[in-house]
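Dataset card, provenance and construction

Sequences and ligand SMILES were collected as paired inputs. For each pair, a complete structure of the chain with the small molecule in place was predicted and serialized as structure tokens. The example below shows a pair involving magnesium ion. Curators did not alter the output after generation; any descriptive sentences attached to a record were derived from the structure itself.
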Amino acid sequence: MKRMHRKAVTQSESSEDEWMEHVYEAMELDFPNVFPEALESEQVDVTGASKTTKSDTKPVINSDGYSNYPTARETLKKVGVYLGGGGFGDVFKVEKDGRDIALKIAKTRDAWETIQREANIYEKINKEGGHKNIAGCIGICEAEGVKGLGLECVDGPKISFILDTAKQMYESGKITHAELWGSAQSFLKETLEALAFLEENNLVHGDVKGENIMFDRKSKSIKLIDLGSACVAEEEEARMGTITNASPEVMLSWSRSLTPKQSASPRQDTYAVGQMAYFFGEGDHNRFGAPDLKNEQATLFQLVMTFKSIAASKKRTDSESLGALNPVEDHASSPGAGQYGRGGGNTAYVKFVNAATNFDPNLRSSSAELLEMDFFKDPLLQEEDTVEVFEKLLQHLDEEMEDDQ
Ligand SMILES: Nc1ncnc2c1ncn2[C@@H]1O[C@H](COP(=O)(O)OP(=O)(O)O)[C@@H](O)[C@H]1O
Ligand SMILES: [Mg+2]
């Protein structure tokens, strides 16, 4: 089988190269149904039966991908490490062919369908050589007799934890203002690089948030995970992802029960990145003035009502009067969440957040455009210094975890 070409490879990516080598090997041997090229090279005899491989000799606990989920889960619990999970099923660290993978398994038929969609999106990503800031994937596979989606196992905390830790450390004087913002800028930049790659390949992540971005201790960079809401841009209906980061146009199209719904667009992802930056800077989610009723359904209702009224008014395209961040009306008072003081509108942060979260998707910046903004061109910390800050943040997190135990 033809090996896929990887984009620019640097020395620091050597662990990723090893991982990709494994991807190629695995694709040739084990995952013909996910990767059609591998299917072509599979030897099929005249009776139509596939050549027997080693894995065929072991019974698969969940051969259709979801039945026998309790047994599959118990098996992985015994031999692997639980990494996380939710409504769809679980993710376990397990060994496959002598190395660790993260195996995502399904609880229900619907969840299995979502996992298969996810595998198809990863297949498109692999065809383009993958990206250093997106966890690798070996497709639908089987480990310890359990079928699931095989992913590069990212060893490290989620960005949401790291950013919370950074704030705590800043407040207690353990890191400087430049270190606080420099690390956030670095994470956001890498996230946007992954998203720009997805956009180049016509893909939308659909659920960008701090919980779906992990910090990989090995490569000291971020890895985007969870493509369960990912879509092919324009071809599929947009998925809502997580409410706090869902773009107004997607929320409105869902609330109006429009048919067809808003089609998936990479602008959903840039909006979500802007929402993350806003949350980091302001300590609250941007709701364009809608109140937080501390109840998800009630807040969702308020959000949709607010979005409807903005969409119906001329404010929609007037970025002077409608930004996530706006000037404080009374300059004597100190700015609250979503407000900036005199002259603050010119800061790189305000410009970036307002460009990323523009209410109108046609005026919202793309990931590539956002990466060109001063917020990233003129960061508070040089790249070589960010590694040192990451070390401090990770060490602090590790100490906290030890204290908890
Ligand atoms: N590649 C991976 N490496 C390490 N942990 C992972 C990986 N993928 C998922 N996880 C863990 O499993 C959790 C759930 O997986 P995810 O794909 O985000 O599904 P969900 O749709 O439930 O959010 C993640 O939050 C993370 O803790
Ligand atoms: Mg997730």
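Derived descriptions for this record:
The chain has a mean pLDDT of 85.
The pocket of adenosine-5'-diphosphate (ligand 1) is lined by residues 83-86, 88, 91, 102, 104, 135, 151-154, 211-212, 225-226, 228 (CB under 6 Å).
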